[in-house]
Structure formats: structure tokens, C-alpha cells
Amino acid sequence: MTPIRIAILYFVIGALWILVSDTLLYRLVDDPVRLTYWQSVKGWFFILASTLLLYALAQRLRTVLSRELDVKRQHLAVVRRKAYTDHLTGLPNRRFGLRAIRRLIQRAKREQKHFCVMCLDLDNFKQINDTLGHSAGDQLIQAVGKRLHAFLTEDEQLVRHGGNEFLLLCADVEHAEEIDKRAGEFVALFQEPFLIGPMPLRVTASIGVACYPEGGEGQGTLMRNADLALHHSKLYKNCFKVYESTMSRAMHYRFDLEQKMREALEENLFEVFYQPIYDPHKSCFTGAEALLRWPDDEGYISPVEFIPVAEQSGQIRALGAMVLARACHETQQLSERAGRPLSISVNVSPKQFANDHIVRDVQAALSASALDPGCLILEITEGVFLSNAAETGEILNQLMELGVSLSMDDFGQGYSSLSYLRKHPFRYLKIDKVFVQGMDSSGQDRALVEASVAMAEALNLQVVGEGVETATQQEALKELGVHYLQGFHLARPMPITDYEYFLLSAQVS
Fold first, then answer.
1. Strands 205-212 and 199-201, bridge-based pairing
2. Smaller CB count within 10 Å for the chain: N or C?
């Protein structure tokens, strides 16, 4: 009941009481003394009744207000809980984590203590979402959250920072050895697969660590440096990195390199070099491997520096498509001038296999250049199979249908190359240069090369030996039956004009 209604009710009851009671008194009492007495009694009765009524109304109002206040408190608690809780995992969310870091900083300043922030990120999570669906991705996030939470100590707090990233706040850590041990234990938690539906799913995690106060004295600095350390660990995956000041300089260098790479792509500054490939049994050069080169003011930027940046930034597809198109075009023109077909080998990054990009890029390069598909050899490593072997197998079959050849590059360095050779339509096997160059001094390396050649013959594969740097290596590989040779002893990588002159000179001689 509102205050206005209470006032109106009180006014009506009071007016009726006065009118009715006065009328009755005048009718029932004739004696003025007695009338005065009863009017006094009536007045005090009205005051008492009013007091009791007001007390009852006040109590009622207090009860109603108390209930409303309790409802509002409960609603506010629910809102606050939702505001600081991740809806998928039930863990504290990013907002809670940032506030917790600020509190840890205040406590550390007050008590002269140390703590660390660990940013944990799942490796290749996007591929899991793309292949198994977002529902499986959500289940994986929940399973990871449960496993991490069960492993926490009393001084640790787990936060879902967003997406596939978690924060681990570790209070009261004093020594670097203790931090390394704990971070290593969190990485090791992912050795066991996660059961998502009926299938076990193996996933790894990378961790970046920033410690207070060495890694920053403010919440923003700590988070930025932990993320920077995470970025460095993602380059290797399935490991952890603790922030160091040198990481900032390296990150700035990578950022500058990435920006320059975009400009170089737009201005067509990249060059394609060609390293000739030799047939020792026919004593002639049959083609070349296309190698990407990036010139700058001081010479050339090493591919070891810019290729990882291109893969991380997503520019590898544009670079790969450019190399494919230019290599096919220049090889076709050179074949016409030389009067004979020349092969061209092109390295393909695992990143180019995403979403069938490589099939479309190869189709475009062959169509634009009119190169015979049989002259194009795509060199891949076993890294293309690590994310999704089934999908990669389908892409390889599509490439084979185009008529191009496939070569297993860096054979002997991986763990599963042999099984991939058996399952997929490879035509060439390229023995890693580490084993070729070790043949002069190591009997084991020679035995490995010999075994690789024998296995290739059994699988009807042609063998390429790369990294040939001495005449002894050349003769040894020829004796073992290697079909093609490549290396500095035979020819160094060169621009297209020098490659053409080299081929014509070799053909005349």
C-alpha cells in the first residue's frame, strides 16, 4: 500500500470515527459532565487506535521493504557473479583476472613479495574448431579448465582469459627454479589426451610467464609482457617461455619485418632464385628448385628470418602463390628457349594447405603459365600432416589429379615420414642434407642414405640428394643409385638470367 493510500485511509477512518462517535454520544449521553468524560475517553481511544494502526502499517512496510531489499541484493549478487564468471567453464573471467592481478600487485608492494602471471594458450585450436566443430571446441575448453583447476595449489588462481587462453596467477613465488618447475608441470598436463565425445583428442599448450616486479610493476605491463613471452613460446609450441627484456627488441624487429614484408609484396620486391638439379647418370641438368629471396639495402634478408614471420602473420600464402606463379612462368619460357622440358621444384609451407588454398594456387599458376603439370614438383615436409592428416591426404590427391608430382622433403628428420610415404602419392624422396654432408665422416650417415635409397626403390620413388658440397659426396650418391643431385658443389642458387646462361652453357659443353 502506497503512502498516499495510507493517508487517505487514515483520513476517512478518522473522519468517520469523529462523525459517528459524536453523533452517538450526543444521543446517548445528556449529562454535560459525563459527555465531557466520554469525549475524553473517545479521544484517547482514537490516539491509541491510531498508534497501533500506524505501528502495524510501519511493521508491514518494513517487512515489504526488507523483502524487496533482499531480492535486490540477490539480484545484484547474481549480476556480480555473472559479471566475473565465464559462462562456458564456470571459472573466473577476464574482468575478475585483471582485478585479481591489481590486488596481487597491491599485496606484493605492501608485503614485499613476488608473484607471476602465466598466459596459457592451446596450440592449433582454430584447426580443431574448423575440423571438429565449435561444439567440440567448447567441450575441449571445458575439459582443459577442469584439468587445470584440479591441479591448482592454494596459492594459485585459474582464470579463463577468453577464447582458448587461460591465466594462471601464482602468488608467493620467490625463485626462478620454482617458476620454471611449475610452468613445466602445467605444460606436462597436456601429455594425456582429452576425451571429447567418443574420441580421445591430443592437444598441446604454450605458456608465457611474466613475474612481478621483474616482468612489470603494473597490471598492463605484466599482461603485455606475459603475452609477449607467450608469443615466443608459440613459435616452438608445447613449451613455456619466461619474459626477458630481449623479447621486446625481438618483437619490435619481427613487427618491423612484417610491415616491410607487406610493402615488399605490394611493390613486388621479392625475387625467385633457381638452384639447378643434376642427373648424375645422364650427366645433365634437368631442372631446378625455386628459392625465395628478399633483397634489401645490405644484401639479402635470410629466409630463416622472414619465412617464420610470414607463416605467423599469414602472408605465407601470398608469398607461396607468387613463387608458384613466377617459377612456373619463367620455367615455361626457359623450356621453350632451351628446346626441352625443364622441371621446377617449389617448396610448400604447411600453412598453404589451409582451406585448399594450395590447390587453387597451383591451378592458377599452371593455367597462367601453360606449363606442363608434369614438370611441376611440390616439395612438402611431414609438418603438413600434423594438424589434419585426413584432410591433407585429400588435398594431395587433388594435386595429383592436376598432374603435378609430390616430393617428400627433408626425409629422415621427422618421425613419421615413412608411414606418410606409404599412404600418400609421392613420386620423389629428398634426403636431408644433414645425412648427405655427413657421409664423408660418418659411416652411420652413409648407411642411412643407402637404406633410404633401397627403401625408395622398393616404393618406386625417385631419390634426390640435396646439400652436395664435395666431389666425394657426388660420387658416393651416384654409386648408391641416387637419381638426382643438388648442392653448392654443382651449382649455387641464381637469378633467372644467370640460370638461363648456366643451362645453355652446360648444354653446349
1. unpaired
2. C
Confirm whether 140 is domain-assigned.
yes
Chain-centre distance of CA 306, in angstroms? 19
Long-range CB contact pairs, 439-447, < 8 A, 24+? 439/472, 439/473, 439/476, 439/477, 440/470, 440/472, 440/473, 446/476
**What tens digit of pLDDT does each residue of 264-285 get?**
988 899 999 999 999 999 999 9
pLDDT of residue 507: 65
Which triple of cell numbers denotes residue 436? Answer: 648427405
Whether 100 and 30 share a structural domain = no
Is 89 among the domain residues?
A: no
Is residue 15 in some structural domain?
yes
Between 242 and 16, where is the model more confident? 242
Nearest to 185 by CA among 141, 232, 157, 152: 152
Decide: residue 134, CB within 10 A, 0-12 exposed, 13-18 middle, 19+ buried. exposed
> Are 280 and 482 in contact, with CB atoms under 8 Å apart?
yes
Question: What average pLDDT score do residues 242-256 get?
Answer: 79
Q: Residue 342: how many CB atoms within 10 A of its CB?
A: 23
Pick from 114, 297, 135: which is nearest to 216 by CA?
114
Per-residue pLDDT reduced to its tens digit, 133-167: 888 889 999 999 999 999 998 889 999 988 899 99
Q: Does residue 213 have a cis bond before it (omega within 30 degrees)?
A: yes
Q: What is the pLDDT of residues 114-131, one digit of tens each?
A: 899 999 999 888 878 877
Q: Which of 256, 291, 124, 264 is nearest to 201 (CA)?
A: 124
Q: Which domain holds residue 273?
A: 254-508
How far apart, in whole angstroms, are the C-alpha atoms of residue 155 and residue 92?
Answer: 15
Domain boundary among 83, 109, 139: 83
What is the Cα–Cα distance from 468 to 487, expressed in whole angstroms?
4
Instruction: Assess if residue 389 is contained within a domain.
Output: yes
Q: What is the pTM (predicted TM-score) of this model?
A: 0.62
Q: Using H for helix, E for strand and C for coil, what is the string for 239-279?
A: CEEECCHHHHHHHHHHHHHHHHHHHHHHCCCCEEEEEEEEE
Q: Tell me what the mean pLDDT of segment 424-437 comes to.
A: 87
First-residue to last-residue Cα distance in the chain: 112
**Contact (CB, 8 A) for 99 and 107:** no
Please, is 101 exposed, middle or buried when counting C-beta atoms within 10 Å of its C-beta (0-12, 13-18, 19+)?
A: buried
**Which stretches of 324-480 are assigned E, i.e. beta strand?**
343-347, 376-380, 405-411, 428-431, 462-466
What's the pLDDT tens digit per position in 48-62?
A: 777 777 777 778 778
Residue 327: the pLDDT is 96
